Amino acid sequence: MIEIGKVVQAREEVRDKAKRDMQKARSLSKQAILLGHQNKFNEAKRLIEKARKIISRLNDASKKYPKIIYGGLFDAALQEYSEANIFLTLIQESRFVAPEEIGVPSVDYILGLGDVVGEYRRLALDFLRE
């Protein structure tokens, strides 16, 4: 029974850390988008890189704990990360970054791409206000 308790406790710790990491990656990606709107691209890239490292760690953890990692929050983090990468690359390089370039599944990439439309709407409104 003690062994079972240790296994359950270890899984809970992994789940809690994964949840915090997913929220952090999503938050960093959102902040990067906001910095992109402010033309603070170096800061935005720094945050995207932090998010990339977190997502990479989560991908590694998913090999051992797939049920914990793929519980919904990871998709939200990947979508926000995709959106930030697509948006910033479009603004800076006038091109679309590919899902393979940023290491995200196609579905999360497409959902992030759909959200980029809203960011461009916001850019247009900002330009009109100036």
Summarize this structure as a short list of keywords or feature phrases.
single chain, 0% strand, Methane Monooxygenase Hydroxylase, Chain G, domain 1, 130 residues, mainly alpha
In words, what does this structure look like?
The protein is mainly α and about 130 residues long. The chain has one domain: Methane Monooxygenase Hydroxylase, Chain G, domain 1 (Up-down Bundle). It is about 85% helix and about 0% strand. The protein has six helices and no strands. α1 runs parallel beside α4 and α2 runs antiparallel to α4. It starts with a helix and ends with a helix.
Q: How many structural domains can be distinguished in the coordinates?
A: 1
Proportion in β-strands: under 5%
The CATH topology: Methane Monooxygenase Hydroxylase, Chain G, domain 1
Helical fraction equals over 70%
The CATH architecture term is: Up-down Bundle
Counted by DSSP, the helix tally is: 6
CATH class: Mainly Alpha
How far apart lie the N and C ends?
Answer: 67 Å
Shape: elongated
Unreliable segments of 5+ consecutive residues: none
Specify the biggest β-sheet: none
Average pLDDT rating = 92
Number of strands: 0
Element-by-element helix/strand order: HHHHHH
Radius of gyration equals 17 Å
Task: Specify the structural class.
Answer: mainly alpha
List the helices and strands and how they pair.
Blueprint lengths: L1 H36 L3 H24 L1 H4 L3 H21 L5 H4 L3 H24 L1
Helix pairs in contact: 1-2, 1-4, 2-4, 4-6
